[in-house]
């Protein structure tokens, strides 16, 4: 009986801890430079370590997907003010080859200027040697809202 009680208490503590972690995971992830994107083909999570340039670029690329028209979009990550701020902060401590490009992009986004989003998408797409999914246009407000509802709400 005592063993059963101990098991039940342990499970309760584990479940409680998991719930608390799930509620704060995004904040903790941003603080540590980890973002979780979603593969749009199979719905699986993609863990991105923003201290690695390839992952940093991929996070930026995935965020453009809510604002551009492209034949194929393989991943998605909601473009939020918190993510932009976190990426700018992480960028300060890096020696990325494309640091100036990333910084200029994120600073414009922070100001609410997304006119560069098709160019940003395609530049990162080309750096990754993409062959399908070049951005061709901006999504209008209604299309972007539909994309956000489909992928994040």
UniProtKB/TrEMBL annotation:
Residues 1-22 form the signal peptide. Keywords: Signal. It comes from the Bacteria. InterPro entries: DUF6241. It holds the Pfam family DUF6241. This is Uncharacterized protein.
């Amino acid at each position: 009986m005592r063993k059963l009680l101990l098991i039940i208490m342990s499970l309760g503590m584990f479940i409680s801890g998991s719930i608390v972690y799930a509620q704060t995971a995004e904040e903790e992830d941003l603080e540590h430079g980890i973002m979780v994107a979603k593969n749009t083909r199979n719905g699986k999570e993609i863990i991105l370590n923003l201290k690695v340039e390839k992952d940093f670029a991929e996070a930026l690329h995935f965020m453009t997907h809510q604002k551009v028209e492209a034949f194929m979009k393989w991943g998605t990550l909601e473009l939020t003010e918190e993510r932009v701020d976190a990426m700018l902060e992480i960028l300060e401590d890096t020696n990325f080859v494309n640091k100036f490009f990333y910084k200029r992009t994120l600073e414009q986004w922070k100001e609410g200027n997304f006119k560069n989003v098709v160019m940003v998408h395609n530049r990162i797409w080309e750096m990754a040697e993409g062959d399908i999914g070049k951005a061709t246009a901006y999504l209008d407000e209604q299309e972007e809202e539909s994309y956000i509802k489909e992928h994040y709400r």
